[in-house]
Amino acid sequence: MKQPIFTGVATAIITPFKGGMVDYNALARQLDFQIKGGVDAIVVCGTTGEASTMSYHERLRTIEYCVEHVNGRVPVIAGSGSNSTENAVALSRDARRSGANALLTVTPYYNKATQAGLIRHFSVIADAVDIPLILYSVPSRTGVAIAPETYAALARHGNIAGTKEASGSLTTVARTRALCPADFSIWSGNDDETVPIWALGGKGVISVAANLIPEKMHRLTTLCAKGDFAAAGQLQVQLKAFIDMLFCEVNPIPVKTAMAELGWDYGELRLPLCKPSEEHLALIRKTLADYNLYPETE
C-alpha cells in the first residue's frame, strides 16, 4: 500500500534570484516562512520556481540547499521533469542523491507525446529511482494531458505515487479516481480547484498561493481533511479573487511581483519572463490591499 507523500498543502516555492544567481539566503527565509505557516511539503524547482530557466547545476544545487535547510521538517519534492526522457532520468537520479523525498515529473513539453509515449516515458523514470514520483499534467503549458486510462496504467508501478492534476478538468479527476486504486494520490495543481478535487478523493494541493498566504491555504486543506466542505467551500470562494490575481499573467510573474510589493526581496524574474503590465500591476496592488496583506504603517 502506497502512502501519500503529503496530505494538505505543498508550496510550489519561488526561486529568488539576485545578480543573475540563486539567492540562497532569501530562499531560506521563504522556506522558514512556509513551514511556520503550516505547509505540509515543499516543491522546489517546479514551474513556479522557474526551473526551465535554470542550468542543470543550479537546479541540483537549489534542490540540495532546500533539502539541507528544511532538514526533515516537511517532505521536499524536487521538480525533475524534462521533455527528454534521458535528461529526466539523470535529473531524477541526481535529485534523489541530493536527498529529495519525492520527485515531480511533468509531461514532456513541445514533443507532445502520445499516451503510449507517456506511459513509457514515466515508467523509464520510475524504474531509474527508488523514491516516489508524482506525475504532473498541465496541458496549458505542455500541450498534452494525461488521460485517466493512462493514469490507471501508470498507477500499477510501485514508484508512481500519484499526480498533480492541473488540466482544469474535474471530469478527468473523477474518472481517474474511479479507474485508479485508492493508494494513487491526486493533488490539485490549481489553487482554485483545491476543494472540488479533494471532494472527489484528492489529497490536497500543490499551491502557488501558499507562497504568500501559507496559513490560509493550510486552513483550507485542514477544513477539507475534516470533511467540513461547507466551510472549505466558503473559504475557497473568499480566496477566488486573490487566486485569479496570481494568474493574471503567466505564473510566476504575479506571485513574485506580489511578494516584492509586500517587501520580500526576491530579486528579478528570469527572461523570457518579465515585469507585468501596468494594468496587471495595478490589479496586483489592489488585490493585495483588498486582502489586507500590506504591512500596517504607523
The CATH architecture classification is: Alpha-Beta Barrel
Describe the largest sheet. Answer: 8 strands, parallel, barrel
Secondary-structure element pattern, one letter each: EEEHEHEHEHEHHEHEHEHHHHH
Kindly report the average pLDDT value. 96
How far apart are the first and last residues' alpha carbons, in Å? Answer: 55 Å
Assign the CATH topology: TIM Barrel
Broad structural category:
alpha/beta
What would you note in describing this structure?
The structure is a single chain. Strand 2 (17-18) and strand 3 form a beta hairpin. It is built from 13 helices and 10 strands. The mean pLDDT is 96. The protein has helices spanning 24-36, 56-70, 85-97, 115-128, 139-142, 148-154, 170-179, 194-199, 214-225, 229-238, 240-245, 253-261, 278-290, and strands spanning 8-12, 17-18, 21-22, 41-44, 76-79, 102-106, 133-137, 160-165, 185-188, 204-207. It has 298 residues and is of the alpha/beta class. Helices cover 44% and strands 14% of the residues. It is globular. Helix 1 crosses helix 2, helix 6 runs parallel beside helix 7 and helix 9 (214-225) packs antiparallel against helix 10. The chain has a single domain (8-227), classed as Aldolase class I (TIM Barrel), CATH 3.20.20. The strands form 2 sheets. The protein has an 8-stranded parallel barrel, surrounded by 5 helices. Strands 2-3 form a two-stranded antiparallel ribbon.
